[in-house]
Structures are given as C-alpha cells and as structure tokens.
Amino acid sequence: MILLVTGILAILAATWTNRPSVWRPIVVDASVAESDTTDVLLRPGIDYEVSLEVERGTAGAGARQLFKPRPQSAVTGRWSITCQDDRIAAGDFTNYIRIETVRSWRGELYRVIARVPFGVDAAKYRGFGLTGSYLSERVVGAFQLPDDITGSCQYSWAIDGSMDNVRLAIRRSEKDWRAHSRQLAFLPIGGFLAVLLGSFALLVRGLILLRSRRDDSPATRR
Q1: Which terminus of the chain has a lower count of CB atoms within 10 Å, N or C?
Q2: What is the tens place of the pLDDT at every residue in 210-219?
Q3: Domain range holding 73?
Q4: Helix ranges restricted to H, 105-185
Q5: Is residue 99 within 8 Å of 139, Cβ to Cβ?
C-alpha cells in the first residue's frame, strides 16, 4: 500500500511540475481570429519558442508542407511579442527552426508515462493518453525574455492564410525542457513503476489471503 500511495503522489507531483500551462503559456486557434493581441504571462530570463501545432495525422498538402524542414506556404503571417511597450521579438510563420512530431508507439507511451507537456493537446495530457490528440509542431521563432521584464506581455499575430485546425503556441524552449526532464524524470517514471509494483503486490497479497481463507474454511477441513 505504501508503494502504491508513493507512486500516486510522485505522478501527481510530476503532473504539477509538467503542467502544460507552465510549458506552453499560451495556445490559440488560428481560425478564431486572423489577427489579434492577447496578454500572456512569461517568465523573465527564460528562453521561449513560437510554434505552429497541428493534430498528427492531419491530411493534405498543407500539413505535409508544415512537417518538412523548409519554407512553407500553408500558414502565412507574422507574430510579435511586446513587453512594457517595447517589442521583444517578431517573426514570420513561414520560418523554420525545428520540427517536433511523435512517430512511434514508444514516443506516445513515453509522453504518457513521463507526463511530457509537448506533442499532446490538453485533453490527451489530462486523460493520460486515453483521450485527445497527439500534435506535431513546427517551431518558427525563438526569443529570450529580458530579466528586467515584469508583468504580462502582449502576443500579437496576423494570419494572411492558414489551413484548418492550426494552433499558434508559445512554449518554453526544448533546451529548458531537456534540462528539467533530466532533473525530474524520476518522478513520473518512478511513480508509474511504483504504482505497477504496488498494484501487483496488492494483487498477490489478495490472492494469498483468499487462498488462506479457502484452506481454513470448514468445507476444506476433514
């Protein structure tokens, strides 16, 4: 029982430290508004990336363009980050820095077990892989927030053309995630292992108790 409770607590702790709102502070649907500005709370001194997110398995020539490491025309437009009336960063959605996608069942399983906040939508993360969708990401920009920034910033975008079901996201950098994961990966992975071992131990204990009761019952005594 102690092992089971410890595992559950470890998974809850991992879920809290890896929650999407920390690692992807804003995600907006490109089809909601072709141009808009919204407030976003970013942490000073942290590296961020701007990415386009599309559900994995989306068909069509536009989706194929997004997932190739070269300029694309499926989503066109501009973005910018302004903090305290100063423009911190700006770029174009047609740019390319990196492609992130989940291609195998091992990658899917790892995201579920390790509570990875990237490559999955909010429903997939909350449902431990039982609901929601896996995402592919095209990173189109990067910036670091200055240390002297306080309060919220403004994320602005203008879409000239877009395919359906595209999300515009600001996410913590891949470098930040890898450093975090190296330090705290033991929480979700160790937690799941502890839950499995604890559940197995409870099952074995239950079977032993059941067998013991059968052996001690009057019907089995002669």
Answers
A1: C
A2: 777 666 666 5
A3: 2-220
A4: 105-113, 122-126, 174-184
A5: yes
Domain count, the chain: 1
- pTM metric for this prediction: 0.83
Residue with tokens 């700006």: 90
The closest alpha carbon to 169, from 41, 49, 83, 32, belongs to 49
Q: Sheet containing 135-144: which strands, arranged edge to edge?
A: 26-29, 166-172, 47-55, 135-144, 98-100
pLDDT in tens, 34-43: 788 999 999 9
| CA end-to-end span of the chain | 36
- Please say whether the beta carbons of 42 and 25 come within 8 A: yes
Phi/psi of residue 78, nearest 5 degrees: -135, 155
State the DSSP string of 7-33.
HHHHHHHHHHHT-HHHHS-EEEETTT-
